[in-house]
Design goal:
The protein is α/β, with parallel strands linked by helices. The chain has helices at 15-25, 47-65, 78-85, 97-113, 133-141, 152-161, and strands spanning 3-8, 30-36, 68-74, 89-94, 118-123. The protein has one domain: 3-Layer(aba) Sandwich (Rossmann fold).
Length: 165
């Protein structure tokens, strides 16, 4: 069984993330969405809320693609998380050249730690390339319309969390 790991903070999950998940599902038999705990980032949503949103969004994708998709919180090194879930592939989404520079360094470090785990880069669809969770949260905080960037479920959760009901 080919297992892939798509890690991130997913605070919140966006249409860009969902695009990468959909396309990564075609490459593996099981896709683990590694939800980084990362207390230093000060996420807007709790770990439990992020996992719940991912599970809700991925249930539909799993049914559509026939690929098992599961959420898995982690707080250790990414390469250790890959080992923990039995992943042979780490999936990373790229939006721009700036993403590649950081990701290139990460691949080198991960390969030095465990050369048996490959990293695969997927470019976000053109219409999703500008989407970043950080920007979505900022736009939502300032009363902007983020409905083009997130699903209706996530929009509802953002609105509730920011007291914009």
């Amino acid at each position: 069984m080919r297992i892939g790991l798509y890690p991130g903070t997913f605070d919140p999950i966006t249409l860009g993330h969902i695009d990468i998940i959909r396309r990564a599902s075609a490459l593996v038999d099981k896709l683990v969405i590694g939800v980084a705990i990362n207390r230093d980032k000060g996420p807007l949503f709790t770990l439990e809320e992020r996992v719940a949103m991912i599970e809700a969004e991925c249930a539909v994708l799993s049914e559509q693609t026939g690929t098992e998709i599961v959420a898995h919180p982690f707080e250790n090194l990414l390469i250790n998380c890959a080992r923990d879930v039995g992943a042979q592939i780490i999936v990373r989404g790229l939006r721009a050249v700036a993403d590649f520079e950081y990701e290139y360094q990460m691949v080198g470090m991960n390969r030095a730690l465990d050369s048996s785990v490959e990293t695969v880069f997927l470019m976000a669809e053109a219409r999703h390339q500008a989407i970043a969770s950080k920007l979505v949260k900022e736009i939502a905080r300032l009363d902007g319309d983020v409905s083009k960037f997130v699903t209706p479920l996530v929009l509802k959760e953002l609105t509730k969390r920011l007291g914009k009901v």
